[in-house]
Amino acid sequence: MTNQTKASTVRCYEFNAESSIMNFGPYKRRAGNNRKQQISSGPQLKQAQFNYSPVRSQHVGLDPSLFGWVLPSKPMVISTFRDPLQRLISSFHYGVNYGGGRPGEIQKTICSYQDLGVNNLQEWQERVIRAREILTVSNEPKYYMIALRTYLNKCAAAVDNVYVQFLDPITKDVNVALDHLNKYVIVGMQNDMEETLQRWMRIGLNACQDHPNFEAIKNTLEKNAHSIKHRASVIQVDSEHNGIKIDPLQQQQEEGEEEQDDNDMAADDTENDGGAEEVIELVKWRFKFFDDDIKRLMRQLTKKDEIIYKRVLEMYEEQRNWA
User: Left (φ > 0), alpha (ψ -120 to 50) or beta: where does 95 sit?
Assistant: First the structure.
């Protein structure tokens, strides 16, 4: 889908996540006189069986060579973006150990948790939480930096300019990635998810007006529009050093999205109403925490993504009227 193409010209295709089957082709678009015009001939319905579904929590790359046969010729591609350094730190916290790739060719594991000195994902996340707690309470970034350096050295390919990996999984060229971004992607912002999801819902409904089950699709989307669940983030620890997960959007609303001052390193220790348990607010990461070597490596792993992100910010405003 190009920037010049209105969302109403994009047709609706279906992927069944349970059966891994995609129904596609031939599709129709509105002609100038509002009559439906058949674009392609052949069977009324085609199916493709996928043995590696995009439903998996992986970075499935955008491969335009699939357009027109496995996918429609002008598919609706939607993707959210965030500041590249924030994305990198988030991957470090969650222990992301996979990269991007073409559908069916995704490298499922780039680094093992044993490479990181732990046995599994839970142990890694507990290690990171403990390092963040020490940083918060003692203003000591040493253990946080040790964990981050280990992750970046062992799992660099998993976080190496991920936006470029997604937008051009074959050559990983930033210029090709920019071209694909401009031609095909409807962008969203992770720091503006409510607006992003509402916008995507409206664009999707516009695209699927000719679908035989349009009313059911519309009712389902509108019913769930205000009850969308988001992955919670660990921003607190209790007295037993256990991480407490909070919906980041709920937190933003409660805090009025106020940012801490860069010099504010003090821990916010509070007690609940019963006074039974102490809760520590984990300090937000700051680039100044890190030594020059880690800063250099982080910049190297996000340099191309910064170019992509700058264009994404522009597109987010340009696409505001699409819905």
Answer: left
Burial class (CB in 10 A: 0-12, 13-18, 19+), 84: buried
What 3-state class would DSSP assign to 233? strand
**Under DSSP, is residue 104 helix (H, G, I), strand (E, B) or coil?**
coil
Q: How high is the mean pLDDT of the chain?
A: 74
Q: Judging by DSSP bridges, how do beta strands 77-81 and 185-189 pair with one another?
A: parallel
Cα(155)–Cα(177) distance, integer angstroms: 22
CB proximity list for 15: less than 8 A, separation 6 or greater:
21, 22, 23, 54
User: Cis omega before residue 26 (within 30°)?
Assistant: yes
Helix or strand (DSSP H, E) at 227 = none
Any bridge partners for residue 270, and if so which? 279
Closest CA to 180 of 190, 170, 191: 170
Q: How many other C-beta atoms are found inside a 10 Å radius of the C-beta of residue 88?
A: 25
Q: What is the pLDDT of residues 251-296, one digit of tens each?
A: 444 444 444 344 343 334 333 344 445 677 777 888 888 999 999 9
Residue type, 143: Y
Are 36 and 83 in contact by the 8 Å Cβ rule? The answer is no
Write down the pLDDT at residue 245.
53
Residue 40 makes CB contacts below 8 A (sequence gap 6+) with 25, 26, 27
The residues near 37 (Cβ < 8 Å, ≥ 6 apart) are 28, 29, 30, 31
Selection from 96, 127, 117, 95 nearest residue 243 by Cα: 127
**In contact, 143 and 130? CB cutoff 8 Å:** yes
Confidence at residue 63, expressed as pLDDT on a 0 to 100 scale: 85
Is the pTM higher than 0.85? no
DSSP-based three-state secondary structure for 43: coil
Residue 6: alpha-carbon gap to chain centroid: 24
